[in-house]
Amino acid sequence: MRKSAKKESAPAPVPETPRPPAPPDVPPPAGEDSLEARLAILLEAGIPTVLLTVISREGSAPRHAGTRALLTPAGLEGTVGGGALEARAVEAARQSLESGISARVFCDLTGLTPASDMVCGGSMEVLCEALTPEQAGLFALADQVLREGGRGVWTVDVSRESLPQRRLHLATLPEVCPEVWPEGFARLDGSPAVRVDLDAALPLLEELKNKAGLLSLGERAVYVEPLDAPPVLLLCGGGHVSLEVAGLAQACGFVVDVVDDRPEFSDPARFPMARRCLTLPGFENLVEACGIGRRHYVAIVTRGHSFDREALAQALTSHASYIGMIGSKAKREQVYAFLRAQGVPDTELAAVRCPIGLPIGAETPRQIAVSVVAELLAAPDEAVARHTEALIREGMALGYPPPPKPPSDRVDS
Fold it and tell me: pLDDT for 192-223, tens place per residue?
């Protein structure tokens, strides 16, 4: 007789593993003018955010003091050096993101082996600063100062690394308030985080030769950083070369504006990385319409010689740090001859980079973009030299003597 099969009992239900809370929706970067603007948006939305800042560097570490990046639940925005160094800093920043407690991370690169992929040597210290939603107004204020072309100084007392004290030193409070902070900046007047005492903070910056760095002030350690606006690249012309230049320049830290005489070539949908797209018939009133100032780098890449000539003539009346124009040497001579006939002096034309870009044999739009952006990145030191020479020439024209020449290192026999 067959035995009946033993009835199996149903398996006990497996307890569900508790799921971690879903991270808040982090808005993607949308071409904000500055890191301060990005922070204001994130903090106003209640997004947990850690600001990573290189506060000191020794030797040949990969990034200088003042290098910044952000960590949110969506990941890292920016870089503080890459490789093993960045991995160490990001791990500390993740802990700060979870705990809400700031930290200082010292990264010594002198003892690393080639296997570590970081053999540059030197050392650097990174502050992982856990920010709070209450600081949204502080960063909105800083961004508005930058928009207005103002000046300021950040100081962060890092003596207590778990509780850094960030302050913004300004000459005056701006009157205009951005949409992200409609309550107004007046409520920040009197806040310990905002000091209207720029003159008192400037000596700290001067001690660091106007660069970011860490100072020892008695028993306190204070990180000092100038509130600097990023450079603005104005692309005159929205063709295929400009499209490639815009993307690369924005990735390299430039705020990008685009102007063209044709609406379809100055369309924000065509240039999503641009801060502003402007349609300007005939490129008339270029300097005023685009607000060209000392922060601007002007790249003239229009669709024709006459438009290039018009844009260049106007750009030369501005205080732009850099002016470059695409084209061959033959085109350059033709445009320059016309402008000379209009009274533009050769000294001004000599400051224009034409053909634009470093001479790397570029042919395709993307290759041209590499040569152009590389030249833009190399331009600041040359712009300072040109500005100094211009001031000397103006002084001599007013009757002031030329500055003395530096002493020669040559020893006569």
Answer: 899 999 999 999 999 999 899 999 999 999 99
Helix orientation angle between 136-147 and 35-44, rounded to the nearest 10 degrees: 150
Check: CB of residue 320 under 8 Å from CB of residue 232.
Answer: no
Bond prior to 133 in cis (omega within 30° of 0):
no
Whether the per-residue pLDDT at 408 is higher than 60: the answer is no
In terms of phi and psi (left: phi > 0; alpha: psi -120 to 50; beta: otherwise), the region of 169 is beta
Report the distance separating Cα 340 and Cα 338, nearest Å: 6
CA distances for 25 relative to 29, 72, 73, 225, angstroms: 12, 10, 9, 31
What gap in Å lies between CA 306 and CA 261, rounded to an integer? 12
User: What per-residue confidence (pLDDT) applies to 80?
Assistant: 87
3-state secondary structure the chain: CCCCCCCCCCCCCCCCCCCCCCCCCCCCCCCCCCHHHHHHHHHHCCCCCEEEEEEEEECCCCCCCCCEEEEECCEEEECCCCHHHHHHHHHHHHHHHHHCCCEEEEEECCCCCHHHCCCCCCEEEEEEEECCHHHHHHHHHHHHHHHCCCCEEEEEECCCCCCCEEEEEECCCCCCCCCCCCCCCHHHCCCCCEECCHHHHHHHHHHCCCCCEEEEECCEEEEEEEECCCCEEEEECCCHHHHHHHHHHHHCCCEEEEEECCHHHCCCCCCCCCCEEEECHHHCCHHHHHCCCCCEEEEECCCCHHHHHHHHHHHCCCCCCEEEECCCHHHHHHHHHHHHHCCCCHHHHCCCECCCCCCCCCCCHHHHHHHHHHHHHHHHHHHHHHHHHHHHHHHHHCCCCCCCCCCCCCCCC
DSSP string, 121-139: --EEEEEEEE--GGGHHHH
Sequence letter at residue 91: E
- Residue 172: pLDDT band with limits 50, 70, 90: confident
pLDDT at 282: 92
What's the whole-model pTM score? 0.69
- Quick: pLDDT tens for 319-352: 899 999 998 888 899 999 999 999 999 999 999 9
